[in-house]
Design brief:
The protein has about 775 residues and is of the alpha+beta class. α22 runs antiparallel to α23 and α23 packs antiparallel against α24. The protein contains 25 helices and 9 strands.
C-alpha cells in the first residue's frame, strides 16, 4: 500500500490518462456483445448429452420444434383451413426450416391397386359443409391426427416446424414470428417452442437491461449524494462502476463471449457492488481531512488504513464469483470469470483512479473539502446517532442479539428441504404474457412443444425389436406424460392395414422379418423422406419421438423414471442400445448440473473466502466469525426460497456466490476497523463502538446502494429476475445488519470469556 500510494501521488495524471485510454479501447469491443439463449450454449462442447443430441439431429433432422397453433371455434371451415395451408407453405420457405407438418400437408398411407400409396391427407380443401363434416369426423376419429395435429375438440390446429440442425434456431424463430404476423385473419395464432421463447427472451432481456440499467445508475447516484452531499462523492464511485462495466463487456466482446439469461444481470451487479470500494476510500479520506491533515497526507493515510480492508473485501468478492469457474455449466463459468474480472477492475480503479483524481484536485487547489469537513466535525448527524445507539445496544445486550439472530436464521433455514430446482425457460415468462399463453395453449390442446427422443440401435427389421418398440410406446402413452409417440412402428402398422383393405383390426405389426423388409421397401418407393425422420437407411437406428406434456423439473423427472423402467422392461433382453435425448433431456441435465455446481461452488467459495480473510486479517477469530455470518446469510436465503416456493434455476443459482463473495465485505470492514482501534489500546467494547459508528456509515451507504440496485430488478418482466433481485436484497440486508449487530455481539461474548467486562462510559 505504501508503494501504491507513492505511485499514485507521484504520477496522478498519467494514471488517469492510462485508465481513460483503456476504457475507450474496451468500449469499442463492448459493442460486439449480444444476447444468446441457446440451451446448448450452457453445456461444454464435448458434453455427452450435447454430442448425442447433435448426432441424432444430424441423422434424423431437427429436434428443435416451433409450434404454430391456429385457434378458432371450429377449424374445419374453408377459410381457416386455407389460412393453415398458406401458413404451412410460407413457413416451408423460411431459411433454416427443415420440415413443416400440418393438417394440410401431412401424409397418410393408403391402399392402392399396386399395393400402397403415400399421399397427402388433404388433396384439396373442401368447400362443401358436408365434405368438411366428413373430414372432421375422419380426422378426429384417427389417433394419428387427433390430439397431435388437430385438437380433440377441433378448436385448434397445429403447424409443427422442425428447424435445420445447422441453422440458428433463435434467428429462425424470429423469421417464423414475422411470417405469422403477416397473415391476418379472424383466427388467433399462437407461436411457441423453445426457439421462440429463446428469441423473445433474448430481445426482452436486452430491452429490460436498457431500461433498468439507467435506473440503477440513477438510484446509486442518489444514494451517493445523500451520503456525501457533494458531486465528488457521487462522480468518482459512479465513474468507477461505469469503467468496470465497460472493461468487462469489452473483454467479453474481445473474446467472442455473449450475454445469457444467466449473466445478463452482470452489469447491474457491477454497478450495485462496484461503488463500494470508492465509498470506503472517499469516506475515510473525508475522515482524515476532518483531522485537519493536508490533502496529500490524508490521501496517504487513507490508502494505508482502509486500503487493506478494501483489498480484502474485493479479493473475497472476486473469490466468491470466481468459485463459479468450477461449475460444469459453461455460461455459469463465464459469469463467474467475467464478474470476478469486473469486480477486480472496480477494485483497481478505486485504489488507483480515485486517489489519482483526488491528488490532482488537491494539487490544483480545488479541494475545499477539508475546510468544510473540519467545520462540520463537531456536528453529529442522525445516522451517527442511530449507529451510536445501535452500538450501545449490541455491546450491552450481546447475548440477546445472538439469541434473536439464531432463532430467525433457524426459522428460515427450516425451509431448505422444500427447495426445488428448475431449468425450464418457460418459467421466465409470467402467466399473462403471450409466450406463456401460447405455451399453455399447446400443452392444453395438444401434447406440449418439446419432444423427447428415444433412439433404438440394433436390427430394426427384427419383429421382436419392433414389438418391443410398440409395447414401449403404448406404455409411455398410457402414463399421460406424453402425447402419442411416433416411430417406424406406426408406419408399418398403417402399411399392414392399407394392404388389408383398410381393416382397422389389421393395424398391427408384420410378424416376419421378410414382411417387415417388404413394407419398408414399399414405403421407400412411395414416399421420399417419409422414413428418413424415423429410420436410418441401413435399418440399424430407429427414432421414437413424443411430445412432452409437462416440462417442469418434477414432470420431466417422473417421465425419465418411467422411460428408464420401460426401457429395462421391454428392451432388457434384446440386443439393442437405447438412448434418450431431446431438448427436454438437455433441460433435465442442466437442472442436475445446477445442483452439482451449486454444491461445489459453495464449498469452494467458503474455503477461498476463509483462506483470504485469514491471510489478510491474520486473525482466526475474524476469519471464523466472518465466515459464520455469511454462512447464516446463505442459509437464510435458501430457506426463504424453500418457504416461498422460489426454484433454484439458472438465474437464482447465482445467489450463493454473490452472498458469500459480497456479504463478507461488511464483516471484513467492521473487523478490520475493530483491529485498528484495538491496536490503539482501546477495550473490545470501545473498539467495537468506534468500529460500528465509524465504518457503519460507509456500510449503510454501500448496503443502501446495493439494495436499491438489486431491487430495481423487481421491475423486470421476467419472474426469475424479480426473484433474483429480491433474494440478493435479502442476503445483503442480512449480511450488512449482521455485521453491525451479530458480529460485534459475538466478539463481545468471546472477549468476556477471556477477561472481565470493561464497562462503557455513560456517554
Amino acid at each position: 500500500m505504501n508503494y501504491l500510494s507513492s505511485i499514485v501521488r507521484r504520477h496522478p495524471k498519467k494514471t488517469i490518462v492510462m485508465v481513460l485510454v483503456l476504457t475507450v479501447f474496451f468500449a469499442y469491443w463492448a459493442r460486439q456483445v449480444h444476447m444468446t439463449t441457446n440451451i446448448k450454449d450452457f453445456f461444454p462442447a464435448e458434453h455427452p448429452q450435447v454430442l448425442t443430441y447433435d448426432a441424432i439431429e444430424e441423422v434424423f433432422g431437427g429436434a428443435e420444434l416451433i409450434m404454430v397453433a391456429v385457434s378458432n371455434p371450429d377449424i374445419f371451415n374453408y377459410n381457416t383451413l386455407t389460412r393453415i395451408q398458406q401458413l404451412t407453405t410460407a413457413l416451408e420457405k423460411v431459411p433454416g426450416v427443415y420440415r413443416v407438418r400440418s393438417i394440410t400437408n401431412i401424409e397418410e398411407v393408403r391402399g392402392s391397386e399396386w399395393g400402397i400409396e403415400v399421399a397427402s391427407l388433404l388433396d384439396e380443401i373442401p368447400r362443401d359443409h358436408g365434405d368438411l363434416a366428413s373430414l372432421k369426423q375422419r380426422v378426429l376419429s384417427d389417433d394419428m391426427y387427433a390430439g397431435s395435429i388437430v385438437s380433440n375438440d377441433a378448436t385448434a390446429a397445429l403447424i409443427i416446424t422442425e428447424i435445420d440442425p445447422d441453422a440458428d434456431s433463435v434467428a429462425v424463430a424470429g423469421q417464423v414470428q414475422r411470417v405469422v404476423d403477416n397473415f391476418a385473419g379472424t383466427e388467433k395464432v399462437y407461436v411457441t417452442g423453445t426457439p421462440v421463447l429463446n428469441d423473445v427472451l433474448a430481445k426482452s432481456m436486452m430491452a429490460d437491461l436498457r431500461v433498468l440499467f439507467p435506473i440503477v445508475l440513477l438510484l446509486v447516484a442518489v444514494v451517493l449524494f445523500l451520503h456525501f452531499r457533494d458531486l465528488k462523492g457521487v462522480i468518482l464511485p459512479f465513474v468507477t462502476v461505469i469503467i468496470s462495466v465497460i472493461w468487462t463487456l469489452g473483454l467479453m466482446g474481445l473474446l467472442g463471449k455473449q450475454l445469457s439469461p444467466l449473466n445478463s444481470v452482470m452489469p447491474v451487479i457491477l454497478v450495485s457492488l462496484g461503488n463500494a470500494y470508492g465509498i470506503y476510500i472517499i469516506d475515510r479520506y473525508r475522515d482524515e481531512l476532518a483531522g485537519e491533515l493536508s490533502s496529500e497526507r490524508a490521501l496517504e493515510n487513507t490508502l494505508l488504513s482502509v486500503g487493506l480492508a478494501v483489498i480484502m473485501a474485493g479479493t473475497t468478492t472476486i473469490a466468491g464469483f470466481a468459485s463459479n469457474i468450477s461449475s460444469s455449466i459453461t455460461q455459469m463459468r463465464d459469469f463467474g470469470l467475467f464478474t470476478a474480472y469486473g469486480v477486480m477492475v472496480a477494485l483497481a480503479i478505486s485504489l488507483v483512479f480515485i486517489p489519482a483524481v483526488l491528488a490532482v484536485l488537491a494539487t490544483k487547489g480545488r479541494d475545499q473539502e477539508a475546510g468544510r469537513i473540519v467545520a462540520r466535525r463537531g456536528k453529529v448527524g442522525p445516522l451517527e446517532r442511530s449507529l451510536a445507539r445501535l452500538a450501545h445496544l449490541v455491546v450491552t445486550r450481546s447475548g440477546r442479539v445472538v439469541g434473536v439472530a439464531v432463532v430467525l436464521v433457524l426459522a428460515l433455514a427450516l425451509g431448505i428441504p422444500r427447495l426445488s430446482t428448475d431449468s425450464n425457460f418457460f418459467n421466465f415468462f409470467p402467466e399473462e404474457s403471450k409466450p406463456r399463453q401460447a405455451y399453455d395453449l399447446v400443452r392444453e390442446k395438444f401434447s406440449g412443444s418439446e419432444s423427447i427422443e428415444i433412439v433404438v440401435t440394433g436390427d430394426i427389421r427384427e419383429p421382436r425389436i419392433l414389438q418391443a418398440m410398440k409395447q414401449f410406446q403404448d406404455d409411455l402413452e398410457a402414463t399421460g406424460l406424453v402425447g402419442k409417440p411416433q416411430s417406424v412402428v406406426n408406419l408399418l402398422e398403417r402399411t399392414n392395414q392399407a394392404l388389408n383393405d383398410g381393416d382397422p383390426h389389421m393395424q398391427v405389426l408384420p410378424d416376419s422379418r421378410e414382411l417387415v423388409a417388404q413394407y419398408l421397401l414399399l414405403l421407400e418407393m412411395n414416399s421420399e423422406g417419409l422414413l428418413d425422420k424415423f429410420l436410418t437407411i441401413d435399418y440399424e437406428t430407429a427414432r421414437i419421438q413424443a411430445l412432452v406434456q409437462d416440462s417442469s423439473a418434477a414432470g420431466t423427472r417422473q417421465l425419465f423414471e418411467h422411460v428408464n423402467q420401460a426401457t429395462a422392461k421391454y428392451f432388457g433382453d434384446l440386443d439393442v442400445e437405447v438412448t434418450q435425448t431431446g431438448i427436454i433431456v438437455l433441460m433435465d441435465t442442466l437442472s442436475q448440473m445446477i445442483i452439482e455446481g451449486q454444491i461445489y461452488s459453495l464449498f469452494i467459495s467458503l474455503g477461498s473466502v476463509f483462506f483470504i480473510v485469514r491471510l489478510l486479517l491474520r486473525s482466526w477469530e475474524g476469519s471464523f466469525l466472518s465466515l459464520l455470518l455469511i454462512g447464516l446469510s446463505v442459509l437464510a436465503n435458501f430457506g426463504l426460497m424453500g418457504w416461498t416456493g422460489i426454484a433454484l434455476d439458472i438465474v437464482t443459482v447465482l445467489i450463493s456466490s454473490i452472498g458469500i463473495g459480497v456479504g463478507v465485505d461488511y464483516s471484513i470492514h467492521i473487523y478490520s476497523r475493530y483491529q485498528e482501534e484495538r491496536r490503539e489500546g482501546k477495550t473490545a467494547e470501545d473498539a467495537l463502538v468506534d468500529a460500528i459508528v465509524g465504518t457503519g456509515k460507509a456500510i449503510v451507504c454501500n448496503a443502501g446502494a446495493v439494495v436499491l440496485g438489486f431491487l430495481i430488478l423487481l421491475l423486470s418482466s421476467f419472474p426469475p429476475l424479480r426473484y433474483f433481485g429480491s433474494l440478493v436484497t435479502l442476503t445483503m440486508l442480512v449480511a450488512s445488519i449482521g455485521s453491525l449487530t451479530l458480529l460485534p455481539a459475538l466478539i463481545v461474548l468471546r472477549s468476556r470469556r477471556i477477561k472481565p467486562v470493561v464497562k462503557l462510559s455513560a456517554n
